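Sample entry (889 residues):
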Amino acid sequence: MQQEHTAGLHGDWLQFMILTTKLELPPLPADTLDRPRLSSQYEELFQSKVTLLTAPAGSGKSTLLGSWVRSEAVQAACVCLDEQDQDPLQFWLYMIHALDRVREGLCGDVLPHFLQRYPIEPRSALIILLNRLAESRQPVLLILDDYHAVKQPEIHEQMQYFIENLPLSIHLVLSSRTYPPFKLEKLRLRGEVKQFTLQELAFTTEEGIEFCQKIMRLDVARGEAHGWVQQTEGWAAGLKLLALSHAFGANSLVSPMNSISSPLSREDHGQHGDRTISDYLLEEVFQRQSPEMQQFLLRTSITRRMNSDLCQVLSDMEEAPQLLRQLEKEHLFLVPLDREARWYRYHHLFSAFLRRELARYGTEHVNELHALAAHWYEQQGYPAEALDHYILGQYMQDAARLLEELFAHFIMGEWWTLRRYFDVLPLEIVKARPKLYMSYLFLFAREMPYGQMVKQLDELEHVIRVHLQGQLEPEIVGYLLQVICVMRAYMAYLNRDLEGLASYLVSYIDQGYPDDIAFQYMDYDRRESMRLRSFHGVNGYLRRGEACFGAITERWYAEHAYVTSYYGVGYGEILMEKDRLPEAICYADRALEVALQIKVAALLVPAYVLKARLELTLGRPEEGMKLLQQVTGLLSVEDMEYWHPALEAHQHRILLEMSPVEAAETILAKSVREGSVAAETSCDQMHHAIVRIRAMIVLEQYDLAQEELRRIRNQADERDWLTEQVECALLESIMLQKQGITDASVAALSRALMLGGPEGYIRSFIAEGEQMKLLLQHYLYLRRTKAIQDHGVKMAYVKQLLSAFARDKRARGLSSVGEANLDTKEVGLSPMEQKIFGYIAEGLTSKQIAAEFGISPGTVNTHIRRVFAKLGASSRTHAVQMAEQRGLL
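Predicted structure, serialized as tokens:
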């Protein structure tokens, strides 16, 4: 995570997007004057929540921040912002990476969950970050330098929420040329905001004199230095400019009439052509340089950061490294960006002046310099900066080429950055590159109406098939058609058209897979361990899932591809829920085989989880635990950090079956992390919460369990997540029955049957064990005696569930001791005996059975004795077990 750039263009996208030079303040320059009245202020910072440094460029904001950071008593996390930082996600990634330097492990703990939540619900992602920061009481300065560069309202809104909920251990310092657009009135009233303006940052007379004489080493009289301070009103950059002007031998200085009266009013003055004292002095300092140095300064001013190699390319001077060192030695507004002094930038004032001077040479000359910078950045493995320079230099064809290569990196997270590039590139250039145009359509797919996108894809496919035939290699044409097919599938997915999704993806595999990271590994949903629950449009509905997953998986069963495991796991989960265990095992094995070949965590984890759940279903929990432990050894450290909570929840679910009380105590001893469940949107996190509820029920913490069940059920209802709705209803039924609240327990069971019946849910009921079987038997009796309403629940479904319990016993090998001596000959039960025996298996008493047939209980007992004799059974339980083994039920 701390690498500065990637090797080539195919590294991890986080490394690709994070420049570590932006995560620390520039080292204090050699010409820094120690001003104790300001530097000592860090001791009082934590008495408030926020400190604002608001003053014009060159006022000493960064220098003051550097003096605070230099203090050993303070841990500081820093982000140096610039005009490129407009993507909200990237903004928070920089924040998290900066904080990780002082909160070790923060990236590992927070980043995976943050990335998962942010695109869906940014505020819940911020809750995760804030809660994690609140765990430590060690004070930390969080510094955002040059916040004025941020223009996106979305970032300001999220920062407002972040500030309002900052933990006590974090003190935010915002440095900006303008007052940030936050509402801080309440914090001000509570004394939680401290502000430094130009008035506080300005040099006092004594500080100004000391700066001129001791730091700049000028042989000037005290009175003359005093005049300079008055003339600049203590403005640090102005005083330095006067000192430099004197040092370079200026014949005259600016008159007091041109002194700086309101630096704030002159912000961005260069855009209006106004001549100010800074323009005058910068020009004078510039003109005092040698022609070689002037050329060097102008040609290197086009880039936001530079090193000696880049300077040599831009200036076309072999002595570029020596000139850089000379600038640093002469304190000529050169700012080092790292402690090793490999990267530099010019002070903002000086940079703006140089660019204005460079513009006089014409646009063509400036564009050529941008081209040189772009080529160098691209060759050195800094593609994002190369892309910026291609665009600034109006080399749109090269920009389009590079963006086409970089799309796969950006698509993983930086949507705003992609949009910015596509907004700048002419659409005709984008359309001239079919692959880039498809990337453009892919980016806007979520916003474009379904019909409009389909029309665009139809037109693009027509162009490829008709107009590009013969102009492109056949394999390129084939690739483009493959990607169009994938995009049609993606649009179908976004619009919950699961039938269309299956159709297009089957067509896609018929054509072959495009070798492109942006489309070959297109995961349609968040990475979660259970496809049936999380897949968009399926959400636990078995019929939808079977129509989609089944059609795809059956076609792709023999294909060694990512999608085989992706949909194969989902299909296996559906088959397991429908109690078609042999088929479920078959697809689970195949999915795991492919996942082990591809070795992608988003495939491995769901495949192993499905296998572990099947082992638990078959009565082999120890084998399930081994599988979950095995997959942890196959994951990288980074992947394990992401998947650990989900895997732990599945392990806890199995442990609750093996040793309920001990496991429940262990589960509840662990604190709930990552914010409240109310902000949760992840199916895996929902599963984790339900496992905790199970532990509460085991330990008879019914009030807590009921409260949590209500919260989870409300979320499941709002999101129309069927599996969670069924599971909550079943748990509520069992919990109420344990408390002796029978009527409410039956009502909850009825709700589970209403939800699960139309979709054919079976295993969710069986997984609840013997108590659920008894509840179903009681429910069946109440229905037969018309003591409760049917609410649309079919009796046949309830009987199917009870029969499944019997099959489950056989699968687990829980039959009676005498099973080995049973023969397989026909038992020969009469129709009446078969019906009565069916009621026995359902748990009805002789009196209840008699009421069903309108006969006496004695007659029923006579039939039962005959059944016992034919089976060789000694009791009702024994008879049911023997009948199960012979397949009579």
